[in-house]
Amino acid sequence: MPFKHVALLGLGLIASSIALALRERFPEIKITGFSRSEKTRKKAKKIGFCQVHDTVANCVSEADLVIICVPVGAMKDTMRIAAPHLAKGVVVSDVGSVKSSVIKTINTIIPKGIPFVPAHPIAGTENSGPEAGFSTLFNGRWCILTPTTQTPIEATKKVKEFWESLGAQVKEMDANHHDLVLSVTSHAPHLIAFTMVGVADEFSKVTKSEVINYSAAGFRDFTRLAASDPIMWRDIFINNKDAALEILGRFTEELFALQSAIRRKDSKFLQEYFERTRKVRRSIIEAGQDTPKENFGREGR
Amino acid sequence: MPFKHVALLGLGLIASSIALALRERFPEIKITGFSRSEKTRKKAKKIGFCQVHDTVANCVSEADLVIICVPVGAMKDTMRIAAPHLAKGVVVSDVGSVKSSVIKTINTIIPKGIPFVPAHPIAGTENSGPEAGFSTLFNGRWCILTPTTQTPIEATKKVKEFWESLGAQVKEMDANHHDLVLSVTSHAPHLIAFTMVGVADEFSKVTKSEVINYSAAGFRDFTRLAASDPIMWRDIFINNKDAALEILGRFTEELFALQSAIRRKDSKFLQEYFERTRKVRRSIIEAGQDTPKENFGREGR
């Protein structure tokens, strides 16, 4: 663990999980935290996973690692307030789900000579806020770092070690490529889930209680995704617009091809398509990124 | 439990789960089963959840309840073979995911005087085959019955009691309405999941291993749905074409509205939309149709 004092700007699911994982593994490390929202600060104080400050300045001034854990759209303001108070030798990082726009934003504000290591831990749940965190969130999950040519190699190395020490696997990647990969594996699936849930919610021929009661047939899996933090997702789509629209364009083409196969009653096309997608599932289980448990892991109900 | 001998035509996930649930709750009931596939019969014999027969005739000839558990597209052939061998006083039912087309098909073949009670237990997993069944699959789940004017009330009552005795909640509904409800809560979500997985699988700018490694960010939830039985789903879309196309049409309109909001960077529209969909999730948890567990019920990994 290359850091002694970690400052968390933002106290949501990711920040609270970082704090809980640190406390469990490295109880000697000092953790300070800040949130713009008084309500969030109160909740965080009550849970007690870090020392909560009422100002950014007090939170960051002695830290050797500052992690920006606010929604992507709030990073600019947060960094602007933190910049004059950063300590010498500090490393700044973040946990944003998009990287190119974050890098542009932060690099125009961060004081010269202070390294910024863009990072994205690929982990999360449908829940948000300080009470949603848990210490094992990053176990076995990936964290992608997208250092630029300006990022000192030493700083990237330290942030890599930091995430590995919390149980994550680390991968370095070009920021633009990260944004494209995530638009396939995360942004497009979420937008599609939001859309489907929106359609079901206002389809007048079927009542809301019918949608809810019979959701176990597939729909409920979409509602998990569509329950994620609205502000976080608003910012993601606006800050990764081009990649999101590219994948959604491909998605629409493909959906039309399948709709047309249904209209033509083209059994062979449908069956072959569904056989192909089934194989992708197996690869994900083999890669340890999901579990093949019965009943979608819900047999305990 | 109003039946003494249950015959299962088809030995997949649903049939094996019915057998296991029956054996656990009513060990005195006789259960016979048949599958067209020798491989499936062998597997079922090995697991031993029912008495496996090599012909439909032997399987059904003494049963007082015959449940057709094959994919919707195979029901016609199955019923045609079973019809001459049905016992006096038997009730025939099914578990198909679409109801109008199944009713049409079965009613043209079933011998006069033998009641057919169309049923659809809304339960399932991504796995298929006789080894995928488990006895608690129907616990707390819904089973929809769609009796027609031709269905004797007494037979419907018995099938209702049957499903309730396996732990399900039973609801009666018009067959056409059932098909519309399920196209919202099941068929459209599945087709969309198949599509998204298909797109990711062949998007050349992102490698397959990247898609798989970073799937925890949302994509993996789609792959669960897209791993369901290809033949079953082929038959569902072909047999519920009109309802599926209606919902997919609405879905496309809505997706275009959201895409356009991203293009215009319309923060307000996106945030309000996502706040609305989040509420639907809460209703599903309150209705007991999912669990609010952290990390999508995967924290045990």
Explain the overall architecture.
- Two copies of one chain form a homodimer.
- Chain A starts with a strand and ends in a 15-residue tail after the last helix.
- Chain A folds into two domains: 5-173, 3-Layer(aba) Sandwich (Rossmann fold), CATH 3.40.50; 188-265, Orthogonal Bundle (6-phosphogluconate dehydrogenase C-terminal fold).
- Chain A has helices at 13-25, 38-47, 56-60, 75-82, 100-109, 153-165, 175-201, 208-213, 219-225, 230-239, 241-263, 267-286; strands at 5-9, 30-34, 51-53, 65-68, 91-94, 116-117, 119-121, 142-145, 169-172.
- In chain A, helix 1 links the parallel strand 1 and strand 2 (30-34).
- In chain A, helix 4 (75-82) packs parallel to helix 5 (100-109).
- Chain A is built from twelve helices and nine strands.
- Chain A is an alpha/beta fold and 301 residues long.
- The first copy, chain A, has a six-stranded parallel β-sheet with strand order 3-2-1-4-5-6, with helices on both faces. Chain A has a three-stranded mixed β-sheet with strand order 7-8-9, covered by helices on one side.
- In chain A, 50% of the residues lie in helices and 11% in strands.
- Chain A is globular and about 65 Å long.
- The interface between A and B is large, with 112 and 112 residues.
